[in-house]
Write a structure and sequence with these properties.
globular, mainly alpha
Length: about 130
């Protein structure tokens, strides 16, 4: 671990999915690596399941699901970029071939310590976490 990374608590798969959907329109703050990748895996799983059902019900279900999952996916990407101290505008590099590799590189980097986007992300339910247990 280098001097700019910190030990971040790991999200479980369920915590990451819950956090991602609760924060579906939150484009501020940060998202740890485990939270981001588990959430992305969950979105992929949902898309695959809907794709199988769409075969029987018609393609419009797949399109509706894709559009419904687009906003949570974009917000998770932007929060993950904030976690490595990069602007969310770097997400637009996805639109280019070379830029896609750059964004993937940024997404796999370790979390940075506290930066201009806030303190490092913590597990849900902990003091200052994105999810509050009521």
């Amino acid at each position: 671990m280098d001097e700019h990374s910190v030990e971040i608590p790991k999200y479980s798969f369920v915590e990451a999915i819950k956090s991602g959907f609760i924060n579906f329109s939150n484009f501020k703050g940060r998202s740890s690596r485990s939270a981001f990748w588990y959430f992305l895996a969950g979105l992929y799983g949902i898309s695959c399941c809907v794709g199988l059902v769409a075969e029987a019900l018609g393609a419009q279900w797949m399109y509706m699901t894709s559009y419904a999952l687009m906003l949570p996916s974009i917000s998770a990407h932007i929060r993950r970029l904030h976690d490595v101290n990069k602007s969310g505008w770097n997400y637009l590099w996805y639109l280019t071939g070379i830029g896609l590799l750059y964004v993937v590189y940024l997404l796999v980097k370790p979390s940075a310590a506290a930066n201009k986007y806030g303190e490092y992300p913590i597990l849900p339910g902990e003091q200052g976490g994105m999810i509050k247990d009521d």
